[in-house]
Amino acid sequence: MADPKGFLTTDREVAKTRPVTERVKDWNEVYVPGSLLPIISKQAGRCMDCGIPFCHNGCPLGNLIPEWNDYAYRGDWREASERLHATNNFPEFTGRLCPAPCESACVLGINQPPVTIKNVEVTIIDKAWDAGDVTPQPPERLSGKTVAVIGSGPAGLAAAQQLTRAGHTVAVYERADRIGGLLRYGIPEFKMEKRHINRRIEQMRAEGTKFRTETEIGRDIDAAKLRKRYDAVVIAAGATTSRDLPVPGRELNGIHFAMEYLPLANKVQEGDLTTSPISAAGKHVVVIGGGDTGADCVGTAHRQGAASVTQLEIMPKPGEERTEGQPWPTFPMLYKVTSAHEEGGERLYSVSTTHFEGDEDGNVQWLHLIEVEFKDGKLEQKPGTERKIPAQLVTLAMGFTGTDQKNGLVEQFGLELDERGNIARDADFATNVPGVFVAGDAGRGQSLIVWAIAEGRSAARGVDRYLAGASELPAPIRPTDRALTV
């Protein structure tokens, strides 16, 4: 155990963010560099080393949280990194991007603020990189088997790294021009600087993983031909079909999916573009959708110099504390103020868009909305609450409905889908096509980064067993496992 009295003597303290007036002028990560080091050992000491650590269950990766908290408290960063990597291929990603269901399940959180697990995690991995403790781990021998991984998001990268280290020859296919999937082009630079992806890719290259960019399976390469070329295939293409808003005026210029808007801003930071073709500069911006992707649009619009930013959410405003209907250790739906929300803008809850209004040139100018409420379990409009707000740029951030079926991948493979429209798989993450497996959002549906990595690791075990007859790779979850929610 770290500090037996730590949870009694030390208050929760999180990473400090840079002043809003400073950070909205650049695209660097919002946190003050190095601000965690003076406080993180004491924060790790708040861990109670519970007899039954529910944080393990809150995290689908099964992270050994009490163990690396103990090492972090004692300043043994190398051992802390070993425990961290034992269950997580990319802790620098999850430590920055995961909403931390582990903290919601922390036993201390029953009646006190939980341990700052995310902050401890990101400190451990950052120190490991700085100390040179993160090195390539190439296999001792090759199996002679080949695997294609379709998609280079967190699920695809995790599967690829696990299979490469097991001795298989792995090639990752990515339809974008750079590796990383939504990590690369869906997550703004101010949430995670892309240097973190780049150095992890270099580690994987040194281990033997091959990468093929600007290659879309189904369009550039026939899926059936790819299957014949490799001994096994892992589909980790994500759930990239954005949910649309079919209301009058949707066809107006200036209304875009979030995943049309955000990647262009990231391409500016990569140096591919001088300015984004879809910019919020000087415009009244409306973001439809109250989740993390919506918040990413809000923060991006601030940095592009929007005249105003308004975020709409059809659901009621969540409470700030757990209710009886969301007991510990479930992941509660609470009111959350992200770094993007700290930077300004307005948030409207319980509202629904009725239609858009444009100018004579076909450009969106106004968004018409109405208040809504739940009655008898149904969402109903409240008469007399109609109004309009200025909207010269609208981003749709309402989630995703499933994997892309327009590019031919599903049809060419001959894949079966489940009742939710995801690619169906069995207990080993195998599809109905022999030798073809699926991991991540393509099989689970839209989910969190920790679930994506856990799926990639688990699918890798299924592939390894298919190719070698047995496997020693870990499988932290089953395809049917779900988060601790109500």
TrEMBL record:
It holds the Pfam family Pyr_redox_2. The keyword Amino-acid biosynthesis applies. Residues 39-130 form the Dihydroprymidine dehydrogenase domain. Keywords: Amino-acid biosynthesis, Glutamate biosynthesis, Oxidoreductase. It comes from Streptomyces demainii. The lineage of its organism: Bacteria, Bacillati, Actinomycetota, Actinomycetes, Kitasatosporales. This is Glutamate synthase (NADPH/NADH) small chain. Pathway: Amino-acid biosynthesis. Its EC number is 1.4.1.13, 1.4.1.14. GO terms for molecular function: glutamate synthase (NADH) activity; glutamate synthase (NADPH) activity. Residues 146-456 form the FAD/NAD(P)-binding domain. SUPFAM superfamilies: alpha-helical ferredoxin, Nucleotide-binding domain. It is an enzyme of class 1 (oxidoreductase).
